[in-house]
Amino acid sequence: MTLTSGQVAKQAGVGVETLRFYEREGLLPEPTRRTSGYRQYPADAVTRVQFIRRAQLLGFQLKDIKELLALRDDPGADRQEVRAKAVAKLADIDQRIRDLEAMRTDLTQLVATCHGSGPVVGCPILTAIARTE
C-alpha cells in the first residue's frame, strides 16, 4: 500500500512541505512517483515522520535524528550507541537549563533596578545591557 504526500502528512500530523524538507535533509527517502508525478510513499513513512517529530520534541537536531534513524534501521546496531546519544542530549539540555536559570537570575536583578517610570535616558536595564564587560 502506498500513500500520497497529503495522506502521509495528515496521518503524521505535519504539513506536506515538512515532508519535502525531510526529503531534502535526507531524513525521509525520496518516494517513487506515479506517472502523473505525484509522490507515492510506503506506509511506514508515517511512522518514520512521527519518529522524526518526536525526536525533535525531545531536543534532537536533524543531524542527531539522521544518526538515530541510521541506528534504528541497522539491525546490527547496539543499544549503547542510542543510549550514548540520549545521554549526550540530556547533558546538553541540563546545560541549557543552567544557562537559562542564570539568564533569569540576571534579568530578575535588572528588572528590580528599574521602577518602570520616567525617561528612558539612564534606564538601568538599558545601561546594564550596554555595558561592554
TrEMBL record:
Coiled coil: 83-110
A Pfam family assignment: MerR-DNA-bind
Presence of the UniProt keyword Transcription regulation in the record: yes
Coiled coil found in the keyword field: yes
Domain of life assignment: Bacteria
Range of residues in the leader sequence: none
Protein name: Heavy metal-responsive transcriptional regulator
Species this protein is from: Gemmata palustris
